[in-house]
Amino acid sequence: MPEERLPAIRRARLGTLTIYEISEPELEIIERGSPESIFLNFAIFLLSAAIAFSVALATTSICSNRTFLVFVVITVIGYLAGLLLLIMWWLSHRSTTSITKTIRRRLPPEGEQIQE
């Protein structure tokens, strides 16, 4: 049986490794992922569309009442939904940031004795 060639293994060592302990609710918040990016993307899209429709309403004359009404409705819904999603993004962004700050604060400053 021919001898199998094993791959060469290279390892880069870490200087220090910091391990953080987290609670179950904190883990669940982290597991949920980041919905704030979806909120922010949709908020930017809706606000951009609302601004574009606002510019169209301000710079053109629309003869049809039905078309004018559609433009106004899309503009108003775009601004309201965009602002709502922006607020939701801001609130969820702060909660995720505060969780990570809380976890990082548990680590005592370097050089302090850990009391158990």
Description:
- The structure is a single chain.
- The chain has about 120 residues and is mainly alpha-helical.
- It has a domain at about 35-105.
- About 65% of the residues lie in helices and about 0% in strands.
- The chain has three helices and no strands.
- The protein has helices spanning about 25-30, 35-60, 65-105.
Biggest pleated-sheet summary? none
**Would you report the number of β strands?**
0
Net shape: elongated
Proportion of strand residues: under 5%
**Helix and strand string, N-terminal first?**
HHH
Q: Give the N-to-C terminal Cα separation.
A: 56 Å
| Poorly predicted tracts of residues | none
Coarse structural class: mainly alpha
**If helices are DSSP runs of H or I spanning 4 or more residues, what is the number of helices?**
3
Radius of gyration over all CA atoms, rounded: 27 Å
**pLDDT averaged over residues:** 85
Helix proportion range: 55-70%
Labels describing this entry:
116 residues, 0% strand, 3 helices, mainly alpha
Q: What topology emerges from the helices and strands here?
A:
Blueprint: H1 24-31, H2 35-59, H3 65-105
Helix pairs in contact: 2-3
